[in-house]
Amino acid sequence: MIKSNIKQRLECLDINRLEKLIWKRGRFMKDGEFAIYLGKEYSAGETQEGKIVLRSTDIEYVKNGFEPCKPFNIKYIQDKIVCFKYVNSSEITEYYIIRSMAIYKGFEFEVVEETEDKLSIVTMIGDYRDWVRLGMKSIDIGVYQKWINKNEAEVKIVKENLKL
Predict the structure, then answer these.
(1) Are residues 87 and 114 in the same domain?
(2) pLDDT (0 to 100) of residue 29
(3) What is the CA radius of gyration of the chain?
(4) Positive or negative CA dihedral for 131, 136, 138, 143?
(5) From the first residue on, what is the mean pLDDT of each consecutive set of 10 residues in the chain (164 residues)?
(6) Which pLDDT score, from 0 to 100, does residue 20 have?
(7) What is the distance between the alpha carbons of residues 134 and 57, in angstroms, rounded to a whole number?
(8) Which of 60, 95, 130 finishes a domain?
């Protein structure tokens, strides 16, 4: 039996805080916010004004109204972002968040990083005694992390639609 609820985990987990705590020695799974614009998926985010910012790693998109920018990296995207475009939420057909979750020894954890044969699992909720019993290390107050073999867990990709 899974001892935590996906929806509850998505609401409780502060990904921005977690990202700063995890040592990035592997590669990230495809997680984060995405939007579908004109039939194509983009890494996305929402501005304070309610606009959606679409990010692209392909400079050719400047032909489609994207603005070039100084190349930068963003979590979960291997290539550098080289251009972006602000659109109204009404122009987006779908806006969602993707999370990689692992069922490990009956518990559900966020997967924050992976290598060829290992996963980094993390939790910020639940009973710390369970996490210690599983051999997890405290990487900050209330945050527990462990590297496990991929074959020790069932990995699920969770997609949650966000309101526009």
Answers:
(1) no
(2) 61
(3) 17
(4) negative
(5) 38 39 46 93 93 94 94 80 95 95 97 93 96 97 97 95 87
(6) 39
(7) 39
(8) 95
Show the domain range for 41: 32-95
Per the domain annotation, does 45 fall within a domain? Answer: yes
Residue 73, pLDDT score: 84
Token match 């020894």: residue? 105
Whether 1 maps to a domain, the answer reads no
Question: Which residue carries 């990035």 as its tokens?
Answer: 24
Decide the pairing of beta strands 40-46 and 32-37. antiparallel
- Per the CB < 8 A criterion, the answer to whether 71 and 80 are in contact is yes
Please tell me the total count of domains within the chain. Answer: 2
Structure tokens at 98: 């993707």
Same-domain check for residues 26 and 104: yes
Q: In angstroms, how far is the first alpha carbon of the chain from the final one?
A: 34
